Amino acid sequence: MVGIDLVDIDDVRDALRTHGDRYLRRIYTDVEITESGGRAEWLAERFAAKEATFKVLRTADEPIPWRAVEVHGESLRLEGRAAELARGRQLAVSISHEGPVAAAVVVAR
């Protein structure tokens, strides 16, 4: 199974300006927040990776908490419901950004 997601980097910038710390704490783990240094491009890549992960794990639109997926470089750390849904599967992620768009692809085997 494959999940892909694209994120407009300006949308992340707008969310940071409008909602600041509330946005960060809702979507990203403490590690991701620290590593980001507030860079919208970096955060947008992680947002896309989380969405792509949800696409390969979700069953019947069951929600997965944003912070249950943590992105480290090009690897994933899953907790809670995300880890349960991924049990027995291997996940690989690739992230990138170019110009105004961040992208991520997650492959589950």
Tell me the number of helical segments per DSSP (H or I, 4 or more residues long).
4
Q: What percent of residues are in strands? A: 25-35%
Q: Please give the share of residues in helix.
A: 40-55%
Q: What are the low-pLDDT stretches, counting only 5+ consecutive residues below 50? A: none
Return the CATH topology.
Ribosomal Protein L22, Chain A
The CATH superfamily is 4'-phosphopantetheinyl transferase domain
Largest sheet: 3 strands, antiparallel
- What Rg, in angstroms, do the CA atoms define? 13 Å
Distance between the termini: 7 Å
Key phrases:
single chain; 109 residues; alpha+beta; Ribosomal Protein L22, Chain A; 3-stranded antiparallel sheet; two-stranded antiparallel sheet; 47% helix
Write up what this structure looks like.
- The chain is an alpha+beta fold and 109 residues long.
- The protein has one domain: Ribosomal Protein L22, Chain A.
- Helix content is 47%, strand content 28%.
- A 3-stranded antiparallel beta sheet has the order 1-5-4. It has a two-stranded antiparallel sheet with strand order 2-3.
- The radius of gyration is 13 Å and the shape is globular.
- The chain starts with a strand and ends with a strand.
- The mean pLDDT is 95.
Describe this structure in a few short sentences.
Helices cover 47% and strands 28% of the residues.
Strand-helix topology:
Elements (H helix, E strand, L loop, with lengths): L1 E7 H19 L2 H7 L3 H18 L11 E4 L2 E4 L1 H7 L4 E8 L2 E8 L1
Antiparallel strand pairs: 1-5, 2-3, 4-5
Helix pairs in contact: 1-3
